[in-house]
Specification:
It is built from nine helices and no strands. It has one domain (5-176). By secondary structure, it is an all-alpha fold. It has helices at residues 5-21, 28-41, 45-58, 63-79, 84-100, 104-120, 124-135, 145-158, 167-170.
């Protein structure tokens, strides 16, 4: 359903309902986050945030899911033009959760999204510094999608004369991208 969020939402909801009814809980938060991403992509940010609230309050996930959900929450808040301090705090929490469990890929995805948002706030140098610090931790897998995306954002930030980077140079924010597979 990549890029077809509106078609995927009813399928995700039905699958999530059936999964929850089965009594399984191990991936319930992760599936809820996927639904929230699809809702955000379709423009239903309030509904997406409500799904994340329910999942987070149910305490049904793992720390992995918390890091993933916090990144998605930050992207949704950013797309909804929430107070910059709130968006930054949620991105910082996503990075902290990913680091707590040693999930460098999750940290990189959060940092890449955070860098895009910081740049949109006119904070290009801070965006570049935050992302570069995490990107530098990687010595293998440099051609994976997550690392190529981060490298592209870094290159766009480093080659820019100012805050006029285009959406094509930076990529799109997570809230408007197609749903990604669960990162590892």
């Amino acid at each position: 359903m990549l890029g077809r969020a509106e078609e995927g939402i009813p399928i995700l909801r039905a699958g999530l309902d059936k999964y929850a009814a089965s009594g399984q809980r191990s991936s319930l938060e992760s599936f809820s986050i996927m639904l929230a991403e699809a809702l955000g992509q379709s423009g239903s940010v309030d509904a997406a945030l409500a799904v994340l609230d329910v999942a987070a309050n149910a305490d049904i996930g793992e720390e992995f899911d918390r890091a993933y959900g916090l990144r998605v929450r930050a992207e949704l808040l950013a797309a909804d033009a929430a107070a910059p301090a709130n968006v930054a705090a949620v991105y910082d929490a996503a990075l902290a959760a990913a680091r707590r469990i040693g999930a460098r890929s999750l940290a990189l995805r959060a940092a890449t999204s955070y860098a895009r948002w910081l740049h949109a706030q006119g904070r290009r140098h801070q965006a570049s510094a935050r992302l570069a610090a995490i990107y530098a931790e990687f010595t293998q897998g440099l051609e994976t999608i997550v690392l190529r995306e981060a490298r592209g954002v870094l290159e766009a930030l480093g080659n820019s004369a100012g805050p006029e980077l285009s959406a094509a140079e930076l990529g799109t924010t997570g809230a408007s991208r197609a749903p990604a597979a669960r990162p590892s």
